[in-house]
Amino acid sequence: MRKQIIAFSLVLCSLSALAQKENELWIMTYVKVLQPVYTMVDNNGSFEIDDSAPQDSSFLYNSGLMTFKFQAQNKAISHSWDGQERWTFDLDKEDIQLYGPRDTLFGKVDNGQIILSSTLDDRPTFYHFEKLDVKSLSTSRLIESKYTAKIENHILSNNQIAFTTDSTQAVVNKSEALSKVFFTYNLEGISAFEFDFYPEPGTGFEQELGTVYVFQDQKNVIKGIFFPIYDGLEEPKRKYVTFSPQGK
């Protein structure tokens, strides 16, 4: 009986840990995909897979854009590029399953991360999330101003940044341009934008893509957190950028 009580208490603690306060979100930091590598042979001018050769595989990393907020009664809400979705979830120690109208996700809560997979994926894919404890920042407020991006040794350093929610506006950002406009997603409480830069040779910067989650910290400073992808072969590392309103 004592073991059952302890086990039940652990489950309750885990559920309580996921039932976040209103200003706490889990953000998708990156996606890890197992990419098969095949051996091809030339068969009379036509390339075919060599079934006799051992096939290999490697993990590739990519960017993602999604947030989760866990609520009481085993409910959760997600926001992504295609809007809001409501879920229910089950948690058994570190194992978690989320049930949505279009998909079922499953994975683990481990070492400050939630790592999920989807029943819809045709190859092993792992969506990494981490908790972001921030103050709310409405997208409508964000797009009211223009900003100067402050980050060391990065393409965005000292860029003049503007945000838009107008999906009909053509947004083209050259890497070398010091003034950039980003289409911004409203994720209820924070915003996010995607980037994909192809710097000219000799600039000292690599090709880079990612998703920047924009929020307001406890000191009311507007910041962005992102996990840039370079060659897709290395696990992305966290970076921060600060957006200072111009004229202030």
Automatic annotation (TrEMBL):
The keyword Signal applies. It comes from the Bacteria. It comes from Roseivirga misakiensis. Residues 1-19 form the signal peptide. Keywords: Signal. This is Uncharacterized protein.
